[in-house]
């Protein structure tokens, strides 16, 4: 508990004001690291406290194998404000359009792109390069819906072995469901944290209003007393 609390004390909360969510969240993150059968973990530098907590706990319980964890730097695209917690903020997201995926994923992987062209009565047309695809699309002979369908089919073919692995491998299924459960726990924890912040903000707002009302009331008393 002291180690968990030390990550938050002198930051946002004092030693007597640590919310329950700030206690349960690190515990669940450490449990996810130690209970899943993964050889190596990859975390960003902002998760270093959780990583050290997991390794310290492994030493405390005399665990034979300690988790091997690699830390990487945060993406430079992230906002400069370190206190920004909006997960869907555009600056925290990397965007790629279909053309980039086709150019840098589909063509390098398959060496071609097979498209069913509706304007040609549903006949197949094979493009050997991105340049040929761009020319045909720019001329209007190829519709965007045709390209999207071909792109989706290509991505599904790339990912097909992964799906088959999780369907046929029991250990992979266990990892999948464990990760799915962890994501749900994390999402629920975030909801609790946001709800607590909203309640705290509301309480602070109400207290500030009460303080302002007291000041006004006191000023009125002094004014009335001076008139008497």
Question: How would you characterize the overall build of this protein?
Answer:
There is one protein chain. The chain is mainly alpha-helical and 228 residues long. The chain has three domains: 1-77, HUPs (Rossmann fold); 98-161, Orthogonal Bundle (Tyrosyl-Transfer RNA Synthetase), CATH 1.10.240.10; 169-228. The chain is 61% helix and 9% strand. The protein has helices at residues 2-6, 20-35, 48-60, 98-110, 130-139, 144-168, 170-227, and strands at residues 40-44, 68-72, 113-117, 123-127. The chain has a two-stranded parallel sheet with strand order 1-2. The chain has a two-stranded antiparallel sheet with strand order 3-4. Helix 2 packs antiparallel against helix 7 and helix 4 (98-110) crosses helix 6 (144-168). The radius of gyration is 28 Å and the shape is elongated. The model is unreliable at 83-87 and 219-228 (pLDDT under 50).
Can I get a quick summary?
With 228 residues, this protein is mainly alpha-helical. Helix content is 61%, strand content 9%. A two-stranded parallel ribbon has the order 1-2.
Question: What is the second-level CATH architecture of the largest domain?
Answer: 3-Layer(aba) Sandwich
Main sheet: strand order: 1-2
Count of domain modules: 3
Query: What is the third-level CATH name, the topology of the largest domain?
Result: Rossmann fold
**Cα separation of the termini:** 60 Å
So, the CATH homologous superfamily of the largest domain?
A: HUPs
| Class derived from helix and strand content | mainly alpha
Contiguous low-pLDDT stretches (5 residues minimum) are 83-87, 219-228
Quaternary organisation of the protein chains: single chain
Task: Return Rg in Å.
Answer: 28 Å
The CATH C-level name of the largest domain is Alpha Beta
Main sheet attributes: strand count, strand direction, barrel closure:
2 strands, parallel
Averaged pLDDT: 75
Net shape: elongated
Topology as a string of helices (H) and strands (E): HHEHEHEEHHH
Number of helical segments with 4 or more residues: 7
Number of strands: 4
What is the percent of helical residues? 55-70%
């Amino acid at each position: 508990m002291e180690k968990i609390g030390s990550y938050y004390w002198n930051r946002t909360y004092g030693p007597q004001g640590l919310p329950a969510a700030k206690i349960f969240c690190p515990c669940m993150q450490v449990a996810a690291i130690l209970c899943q059968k993964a050889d190596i973990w990859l975390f960003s530098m902002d998760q270093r406290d959780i990583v050290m907590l997991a390794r310290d706990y492994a030493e405390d319980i005399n665990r034979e194998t300690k988790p091997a964890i690699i830390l990487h730097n945060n993406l430079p695209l992230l906002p400069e404000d370190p206190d920004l917690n909006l997960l869907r903020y555009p600056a925290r997201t990397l965007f790629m359009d279909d053309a980039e995926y086709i150019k840098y994923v589909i063509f390098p992987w398959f060496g071609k792109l097979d498209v069913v062209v509706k304007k040609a009565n549903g006949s197949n047309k094979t493009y050997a390069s991105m340049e040929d695809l761009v020319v045909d699309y720019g001329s209007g002979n190829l519709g965007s819906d045709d390209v999207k369908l071909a792109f989706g089919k290509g991505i599904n073919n790339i990912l097909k072995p992964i799906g088959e692995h999780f369907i046929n491998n029991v250990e992979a299924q266990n990892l999948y469901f464990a990760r799915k459960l962890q994501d749900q726990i994390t999402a629920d924890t975030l909801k609790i944290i946001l709800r607590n912040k909203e309640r705290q903000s509301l309480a602070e707002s109400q207290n500030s209003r009460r303080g302002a009302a007291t000041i006004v009331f006191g000023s009125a008393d002094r004014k009335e007393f001076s008139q008497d």
